[in-house]
Amino acid sequence: MLFKGIHLQGIRSGEITMAFRKWQKVSVNTGSLLHTSVGLLEIGKVEAIKENDITDKDAIRAGFTDKRQLLKSFPHNSTGTIFKIAVRYHSADPRIKLREQTELSEQQFKDLKGQLKRLDRYSKQGDWTEKILMTIKDNPNLHAIGIAKLTGFEKEWLKLNIRKLKNLGLTISHNVGYELSPLGNEYLTKLSNI
Description:
By secondary structure, the chain is α+β, with helices and mostly antiparallel strands. The chain has nine helices and six strands, in the order αβββααβαααααββα.
């Protein structure tokens, strides 16, 4: 579930407390947490509603000026059910604190290495984690297409799997491209000293 930057800021400040989406089926669950650029958002009650049940007050609580502007935000000619979703800011993104680590104990290094080996083992692409980390290290701020060309991996697969590295605190995503986090650099340093 994606949000525009202006809506994320409104959710963080508490001005926006709901969202509306038109989906074929629900794609979020009550109580789930979403990682966003402003931190973790918590999904509250999710309910299917009819277009006639949306009020201007609802639209304002979702960050729009009125119901008409909200309805225009749905993809043109989209079909599906309209869902009214309660949202609230939960907390800062825990990956930020994790990725800022500049030291790894032997146990932390061993655990992280094990997690990456599991990602490699269960991938149809074979061993990929170290190759991707090294490519990002050697080419900071290179976009996914560039990394795909250098590594031979398909772009969409690559983006999905770089997100897994980000969830471990090893990479940082920018508007354009990626870089290793301090933790990612520390991990590769320890790996090269084995």
